[in-house]
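ok so for the tutorial part 2 we go from a plain amino acid sequence to predicted structure tokens. step 1 is just haveing the sequence, like this:
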Amino acid sequence: MTEGQFTERAADLDRDGRNAYRVAGETDDPSTRIIRGVEEIVGRSAEKQTWLYDSVDPDALDAIFEEKHDGTTRTGGKVTFTARGCEIIVDADGEILIYGPVTDDEK
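step 2 — the prediction. this is what the tokens look like for a chain of 107 residues:
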């Protein structure tokens, strides 16, 4: 991954005509990492800056993956949803995968 890049291509995880990307930035909230990753893959949305709200409540998503009240990390579980043509998978271990839009040659 190069400086300033938020996604890393994960070709071994490609599926259903979609390119897979891992999202970096373990110190950021999941919603921030998702926004940066999707915009890096498909580009910024000039007409709508709040596109993530169309798919999921970013505050609720972040809360799901916060530490527990006793300070321990959460284990198990994941959330999967689509936004801007991408399939997004957020794992409890902090990994975020984004499957880009279906490529033209797979339609």
